[in-house]
Amino acid sequence: MSFIDEFQANLDSLPGILQKKYALLRDLDKSLQDIQRQNEQRCEQEIEEIGKGVRSGNITLNASLIRFSDDALDEQKHSIRIADEKVALAVQAYDLVDTHIQQLDQYLKKLDEELRCERESAAASAVAAPSHDGNMKAGRTSESGRGQPAKQQQLQRIQQLQRQILLVWI
């Protein structure tokens, strides 16, 4: 299996993998929003109860004694854990796409270098190739032209893969 075929197979699975990660991100985001909303309500209720206690004289207004409940603090810690998990998932998705792009860039550089070498070789052999009558012949030799279409097709296919990666990422 050629690099391009293998890369295409990996690329074909990329949208599904990213969709799963994004779905999990959406679920985590919904969960985070629910917990934050619940925590806001809890804190508002606790502030209201503290205010009632101060107004009734049951609680003195001492800042060191006024604090949120352990439940409210636990909810906030849980929110932070979910947010951290969301960041980790986003980084995984980014790294996955970035890895594909880097692989493709490396292959493109290699292919460009091969094409450049072939062109230089073709130019050198065209200048040095003698004709049947013993004179120097200018132009492309049949051997140098053979590999070009395949390389150009590979280059075009790689460029298509790059566009697919960008479409998947967007």
UniProtKB/TrEMBL annotation:
GO terms for biological process: chromatin organization. PANTHER family: INHIBITOR OF GROWTH PROTEIN, INHIBITOR OF GROWTH PROTEIN 3. The keyword Transcription regulation applies. The lineage of its organism: Eukaryota, Viridiplantae, Streptophyta, Embryophyta, Tracheophyta. Residues 3-111 form the Inhibitor of growth protein N-terminal histone-binding domain. Residues 122-131 have a biased composition (Low complexity). It comes from Carya illinoinensis. CDD domains: ING_plant (cd17015). Keywords: Chromatin regulator, Transcription, Transcription regulation. This is Inhibitor of growth protein N-terminal histone-binding domain-containing protein. InterPro entries: ING_fam, ING_N_histone-binding. Residues 122-153 are annotated as: Disordered.
